Amino acid sequence: MIYGNKCPKCGLMQLPGATCKSCGTSLGAPTQHPVSPQFNDPRETTFPSMPAKPEEAKNPLLAGTEAGRSHRFSFHGTGAVLFGIYVVNLLLTIITLGFYYFWGKVKVWGYLLGQAEFERDRFTYHGTGKELLMGFLKALLIFGIPIALLNFGPELLQLGGSARMVTAFLVYAVVLLLLPFAMVGARRYRLSRTSWRGIRFSFRGQILDFIKLFLGGLFLSVLTLGFYYPFFATRQYGFMTTNSYLGNQKFDFDGKGRELFGPFVLALALIIPTLGLYWYWYLAKKQRFFWEHTTFGSARFRYTATGGALLSLHLGNMLLLLLTVGLGWSWVVIRRVRFAFHYLFLEGTLDLAGIRQQAQAASATGESLTDLTGGGFDLG
User: Fold this and answer.
1) Is 112 inside any structural domain?
2) Range(s) of the domain holding residue 11
3) What is the pTM of this model?
4) How crowded is residue 319: how many other Cβ atoms within 10 Å of its Cβ?
5) pLDDT digits (tens, 9 = 90+) for 112-134
6) Does 15 map to a domain?
7) Nearest Cα to 347, choosing from 66, 61, 116?
8) Count of structural domains within the chain
9) Beta bridge partners of residue 294, listed in sequence order
């Protein structure tokens, strides 16, 4: 409401007019007051948007980033939606005699990555069922059939005990070589089919380098009765991380295995006294160690999960599976992914202006080998 002068006789503020509405005293000329804009209906009110910075208009990666702050990850998936996807996948896989399995796997990965968010933008998965099917057939032809022949050939040919021992050794040797091949191939494929703000991830490590790292680490772990494991795990993680890229910007890792050795020995010493429960504190320590030694440009990751939180997650998942007779698997997956994102941060300046698309070619053969070798669920 806009008021005019104050009545000199009764002191009441008056609406614009010649005389006081209360006592009739002459008010003279009304005093002009600045009028504020009126918003009768908030739904009709429009506010000017902030103009985009020139560099943000040129590079969409820059939108929504600020220097020197903590950047959070988030996950919005629900067990009910994932359960529905699993049910449809199962029915269609049965109807198609197993062929839909590969398209179902794409549906699951597409949903999980599509519900993951960083800096108000979701990740996108670009894999296809056809790629996975062709990769599986190739892996089956190159590795599956030879392994099957080595495994069952001696029985079919009724060979002696020594021949069976030789073929059994060859089978184990081939499977051992398949593991590093599958790990690198799966990571290469998954990253190449994942994007954020339209920029693809990629993996550029060489399989032969990882095979040498893997076999050497495995040999030293056996030779040292397992005490080399912290160094082995650190070298594996470092290889996978330092060869990973977002566009042309690489990730880095500066952790040393000796930093993990002490906690590993302590965990071994406390396994029996704590009935194995202290192992969860070691796993949480290892996850924090890996993430907090991982950088992206000048920004460093931070992971804050504790052993108690990890133990609570695993006990809750076990209870959920028992009470639902396995039907709660979808909720278990969602809980695991949400847990990982809830405790993960990226801190420091995000210099995204120089990132450019550098998509790399990748085959789905390695991804399919994770099925042949029993590879578990992994978002890496």
Assistant:
1) no
2) 1-25
3) 0.75
4) 11
5) 999 999 988 999 999 999 999 99
6) yes
7) 66
8) 1
9) 253
